[in-house]
Amino acid sequence: MSGPGAQAPDASRPADTVRRILDPGSRPHPYALYDQVRAAEPVWMDGAHPVVVFASHAACASVLRDPRASNDRRHALMYGCQGPGSGAGAEAGGDESAGGAVDAATPRAELPSFLFADPPRHTVLRRLVAPDFTRDAARRLTGMIKDLVDDLIDDMAEQFARGAALDAVGALASPLPVTVICHVLGIDTGERGWYRTRSSLLGRAVDPYPAFVGAPAPGAAERERAEAELTAFFTELAHARRAEPKDDVMSRLLAARPDGRPLSDTEVVTTCRLLLNAGHETTVNLIAGGLHVLLLRPKTLAALREAPSTAGQLVEELLRFEAPLQIVHRHAREDMEVLGTRIRRGTTMVLLLGGANRDAEVFSCPHHLRTERAEAGRHLSFGLGAHYCLGAPLGRLEAELAFVRFAQRVVEPRLAVEEPPFRPHVVLRGPETVPVHAARVLGRDLPWGR
């Protein structure tokens, strides 16, 4: 097992089964572990602070909907909250607008944005940016996204023509969402590789090493540098937008007066950094993982080619089957119960969404891809409740268009390796590369049919 503080697992102990999720060897196929955790839940970890793990759909959904389950790390003993009766937690000092004070034990690259805040502050900040991520806002980008997908597939054609394998992550799954979120934020799309590299580094900050082994995820120094560089970038951009506002998200945040006062620089910068990171990370994994699944199932890909109108249903099943966001944390802001399990204030609850999405109590034959599955929409990949994914409509649209056009234009695609390597990320799980061969690429004048 990798990571500081890791110990040799004992498969007979549920807590050690949970720790095996951190093992890079488990990344391609974590679902058997999730099944074991679900069968044993609640699984209490035996570290210095109270941590409980759930993998059933019922438990995960219950926690996600419960307002006592907080995203604010000030409520977690694991991150320095002093626990019941201490006056810590929501009363802690610090800059509430930035999500609250964070104990020194919290890695610097994990300082909170509104993602790690609770209502009412979370609601205020989310409401300011929500108009740019509605279903209607996403639909208005359809033409731009179609053109971008076709441009990227055009670039793939030459390499396929030489008979060379092409990485579908680097060629399509990664540049598409990064370019789209840069467009939404009004930032330079020419630097998408720079944004992607730093965002990927920051993505490891949410991996559950602190909960499972009591130590940060590997690579804290690199994450700190990536955070500093992105923060400097958005700080400089904020100065430019103050001097010359534009029709973009940052300019609107700088002009906002949600409670009669302007947002702090910290709020503006961390919000834009969050939107950049969260606005493409899960979509990259959705498209990369989806392409991997479809390439293993040529009949499903052919069916999509024949009926592009089924793309929405396919994306819902892929979200269930290969959740791009596998795990989330919540912290008990007060004593609570989860399906009969007593959870004390300060406890961190780790929810294995990838496991909940394959719970046989909700999904028939959960380990099989079924594109006509009636219950696919019950997946938890975008969460539930107040923190339901803001960018869900945009992510769905990008994935639908990417899969449809790949199916239509790329002729006889096939995997160039038996099993592609996976990213080291535990939470933001997806293939690192998806090497593909293809016979040829059809022209972009082909009707979309969608």
Describe the structure.
- The chain is α+β, with helices and mostly antiparallel strands and 450 residues long.
- It has one domain (14-441): Cytochrome p450.
- Helices cover 44% and strands 8% of the residues.
- The strands form 4 sheets. A 5-stranded mixed β-sheet has the order 1-2-8-5-3. A 3-stranded antiparallel β-sheet has the order 4-11-10. A two-stranded antiparallel sheet has the order 6-7.
- Helix 8 crosses helix 9 (192-203).
- The longest helix is centred in the middle third of the chain and has 24 residues, at 220-243.
- The N and C termini lie far apart (46 Å).
Quick overview of this protein structure:
This protein has 18 helices and twelve strands. By secondary structure, the protein is α+β, with helices and mostly antiparallel strands.
What attributes does this structure have?
3-stranded antiparallel β-sheet; 18 helices; alpha+beta; 44% helix; 450 residues
The CATH first-level class comes to Mainly Alpha
Helix content: 40-55%
User: Ends: how far apart?
Assistant: 46 Å
**Taking all residues together, what is the mean pLDDT?**
89
What coarse outline follows from CA principal-axis ratios? globular
**Number of folding domains?**
1
Give the CATH H-level superfamily: Cytochrome P450
**CATH fold-level name:** Cytochrome p450
Assembly classification:
single chain
| SS-based class | alpha+beta
Instruction: Give the total of beta strands.
Output: 12
Rounded Rg: 22 Å
